[in-house]
Design goal:
Elements lengths: L18 H16 L11 H41 L5 E5 L4 E4 L1 H7 L7 H4 L7 H15 L1 E8 L2 E11 L2 E8 L12 E5 L4 E4 L1 H7 L6 H4 L10 E6 L2 E13 L2 E8 L10 H4 L5 E4 L5 E4 L1 H7 L13 E3 L4 H9 L7 E6 L7 E11 L2 E10 L1 H46 L8 H24 L8 E3 L1 H16 L3 E6 L7 E3 L1 H17 L5 E12 L3 E3 L2 E3 L2 E10 L6 H4 L19 H12 L2 E7 L3 E9 L26 E5 L3 H13 L3 E5 L2 H8 L8 E5 L7 H9 L6 E6 L16 E5 L4 H12 L1
Parallel strand pairs: 18-20, 26-27, 26-28, 28-29, 29-30
Antiparallel strand pairs: 1-2, 1-5, 3-4, 4-5, 6-7, 6-10, 8-9, 9-10, 11-12, 11-16, 13-14, 14-15, 15-16, 17-19, 20-23, 21-22, 23-25, 24-25
Length: 763
Amino acid sequence: MTDTAEFIRDPSLANMPSTSRLGSLVFLALLISLAPAMGILPPDWTIGLIVTGISLLIATLCVVVKGQIAGRQAQQTSAIMAAFAEQNDSPYLITNAYGEILASNALARKQFAAEKGSNLAFCLRSTFSNPPAVLLRMQTQAKSFGRAHEDFHNPGNTISVSVFQLSPEIFSWRFLRAEQGSWQTLEFPVLTLGRAGEVVRINPAAERLFGSRPGRIGDIFCDAEPQIGTANIVQSLDGLVPVAVAELSRSNSGRSLGLLPLNHMPAPEATTSFADLPVPVLTLSPEGTILNTNRLAVKLLGNDHLEGSDISEIMRGLGHPILDWLARTAADEEAQRSEFLQLIRDDKEVFVQVTLSRVIADGKICLIAVVNDATELKTLEAQFVQGQKMQAVGQLAGGVAHDFNNLLTAISGHCDLLLLRHDQNDPDYGDLVQINQNANRAAALVSQLLAFSRKQTLRPEVLDLRDTISDLIHLLNRLVGEKVQLTLSHDPVLKSVRADKRQLEQVLMNLVVNARDAMPDGGEIRIETEVLNVSEPLRRDRATVQPGEYVTVRVVDSGVGIPADKLQKVFEPFYTTKRTGEGTGLGLSTAYGIVKQTGGFIFVDSAVGRGTDFTVFLPVCATVAGAEPETPAQPEAQSARQGEGVVLLVEDEAPVRAFATRALRLKGYTVLEADSAEEALRLLEDSSLNVDVFVTDVVMPGMDGPTWVRKAQKTRPDTRVVFVSGYTEGAFGDSGPEIPNSTFLPKPFSLNQLTEAVFQQLI
């Protein structure tokens, strides 16, 4: 196991054969070659020994030559590393994995006596209290991330140490003392704190503010923890002073804080030090006029002409007008001193956190605004809110889908029963067909809700997207119309994916229809497929595509494009840019849900006036596309026929139970009814009762379907089971049904689907 001893041991690098060993090999080779001539061995061995001796002599010479070449290469490498180290203007050295110094520059040799061949931990014994532990920790970080950096604060000085991994066994080290840094020359106070909050160093500006170096941070901030990016009260040489605090650096050994005195702001003519402040700062009048800005504020706000403009033209409040907030703060009323605001920019969405402080300058009231970029924070907040909303809508969709599926099962089921009693010449036949078709449309809408919430039942299969798109192309051509040209481009070596074909077709149709709607005057839609090998994690749009092989499907149009501020909302449910009545806002959210449930990703790129590009990533399936599952043996002639058998139907919804009972009896099955799991178990207490198939709802009041079936199968282990539910795949929870000889039939189901599912369980 690697430990700190690796940095203090002296590893032997002498891997080359010694001169005495080479001489012995040469002598042995010559002896074997000359032995026959000297008459030492029998004549029959002469040729063999001569060949052996010459071969051994040649091999020995090759070893000698290889050793000399390796020695020259090592000398050249050492010279290159030494020359590279000398180019640095701070102590710099190169070591192997054991801490042995391979090269060092003059500054390192002078400061640490870091001579070639010595051990780095030994050279740093007077600099750090435990050099092996420090070096091992940093070298381990460098092995993981390629580099590591730490600041080590000691009374009177601070040393910054950086290490880079040059190769698996070679590391470069750079040491920089604080005197070589920039804190000492800054015109505002800087404190360097240790791990326990002790003050280890201050710059001259801080020494002027406090008179001497304080012992601990509590002596400065009156035993309070400093608040970064906002106003704090500190104990100075002249009494209590308000300051803004910024964290300039942080490491394992401590941190450096910059202090900006708020009641000693520089005059307009002395803008040099103010412009170089390490935090974005604005000075404002109570009316909102910007009086002064520093360089970082200009960079953050993206405007070079801020002085004299109104703050309300630069940013706006999220909850109330920004000018009201400024007025309350200037009047010293009870007002929140920190607010999140949004910049008024056309190129991108930027949020800032602004902290206000009221000060008196030249007898006038001014406001000091410390600005921090809060875009990432607000983005995370928006992601959290969106996630909560998606979860709530998803739960609502699942619950609504369950109730709707029960209703639709009863409607479409009884419609099927009526259709059995009416032929096409009956005047009521057309009305029944309309009822059936609209029930199916309602079922499709419920399926969209489930796809959005990622709770629909998928029937994945191995697909070749070329065949899938070819089967769909005729329908797509009719959808896009005559003004739009639809073109295909396939990768010649396209690999298979595993997905639900019907759901994948719905994704493609949604994307093509959106592309068509974006081109009212016509244009071209391109569908392109390609195999993409992702070698490193691809992070984009808050998603991470893991390394692997993917099949990508791109749907590219040349339409009006999507504005940047709306691009991130296109996958939200019920969000649409179409006019009322032209879209539900579920198309792209449904596509998103289907792709995510399939294990893929979907991204969008767009530019206004240039078109939109949707890209779907689907993982390559390891199963060979041509490999078909083995065909099960055909049942014998004496197998069960349609309508033979006893079915126990357990369903708490009376209309669904009534339809299912009539449907099964029409096919000749004997049906026993139960409105609950408890009633079903009471019926099964009669041991003389023979039941071939259980048809049961999954979610019911009281005991659920899988639970009562497990109990029933303790005495009837061979009974087959058909589970039905409107909750689809989420009905069983996380663990699945785990019931032998069972199948699942999602609601709504038709008369034929129900009877066929029962028949398949009986054969």
